[in-house]
């Protein structure tokens, strides 16, 4: 996506696409004129689900409000502070060492709060498969530094939820503007109206909209 925000990422990410991808593409091409053009145009590509939950969310915090390159440098230094990226290992780190890796004081607080939520069991990670999107989002946004946007990206790119519509993402709104409204500004209401034809595969349609704006897969 062409945006100052970044989707959660992890170097150990699986390259496996969601099992529903082909079914979703067939539905979207049948129901939506733009998807009927975009999906074949963009070729045989799909999103890939990304690595463990804690690492994915920690990286999203590190990447907030900085460039991709800066976030990568900080993440690499931070990752060297422990043998394995786990909540319990992060909680053993000294604040000064975390700051020395390039993290701001605020981001240190956010990552510690994230680790505490995982380590204490306040997040029902093992139950997420059976929980609704909104129930998971409610758990995630209770963590300092995790916004609704981050939670939506996590559901889409980590959990592979099929019907996520991230209306807080400005790039998605820009893509909808370009593809459906000839570049005219669109509201969240406009986007919801467009997405009615995408259901129950809003995640897949959103991904193709992002792809339409970016030369590489989101």
Automatic annotation (TrEMBL):
Belongs to the alkylbase DNA glycosidase AlkA family. SMART domains: ENDO3c. One of its GO terms (biological process) is DNA alkylation repair. It catalyses: Hydrolysis of alkylated DNA, releasing 3-methyladenine, 3-methylguanine, 7-methylguanine and 7-methyladenine. It comes from Diaphorobacter ruginosibacter. This is DNA-3-methyladenine glycosylase II. Residues 62-214 form the HhH-GPD domain. GO terms for molecular function: alkylated DNA binding; DNA-3-methyladenine glycosylase activity; DNA-7-methylguanine glycosylase activity. Keywords: DNA damage, DNA repair. Its EC number is 3.2.2.21. It holds the Pfam family HhH-GPD. GO terms for cellular component: cytoplasm; protein-DNA complex. InterPro entries: Alkylbase_DNA_Glycosylase/TA, DNA_glycosylase, HhH-GPD_domain. SUPFAM superfamilies: DNA-glycosylase. Transmembrane segments: none annotated.
């Amino acid at each position: 996506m062409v945006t100052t925000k970044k989707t959660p990422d992890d170097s150990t990410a699986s390259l496996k696409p969601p099992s529903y991808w082909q079914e979703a593409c067939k539905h979207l091409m049948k129901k939506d004129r733009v998807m009927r053009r975009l999906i074949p145009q963009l070729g045989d590509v799909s999103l890939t689900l990304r690595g463990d939950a804690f690492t994915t969310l920690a990286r999203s915090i590190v990447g907030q409000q900085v460039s991709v390159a800066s976030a990568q440098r900080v993440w690499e230094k931070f990752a060297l502070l422990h043998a394995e990226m786990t909540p319990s290992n992060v909680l053993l780190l000294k604040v000064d060492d975390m700051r020395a890796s390039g993290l701001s004081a605020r981001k240190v607080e956010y990552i510690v709060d994230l680790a505490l939520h995982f380590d204490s069991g306040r997040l029902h990670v093992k139950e997420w498969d059976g929980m609704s999107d909104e129930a998971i989002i409610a758990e995630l946004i209770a963590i300092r530094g995790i916004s609704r946007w981050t939670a939506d990206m996590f559901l889409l790119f980590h959990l592979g939820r099929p019907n996520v519509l991230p209306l807080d993402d400005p790039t998605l709104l820009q893509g909808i503007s370009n593809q459906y409204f000839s570049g005219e500004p669109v509201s969240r209401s406009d986007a919801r109206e467009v997405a009615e034809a995408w259901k129950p595969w809003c995640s897949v349609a959103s991904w193709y909209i992002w792809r339409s704006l970016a030369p590489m897969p989101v």
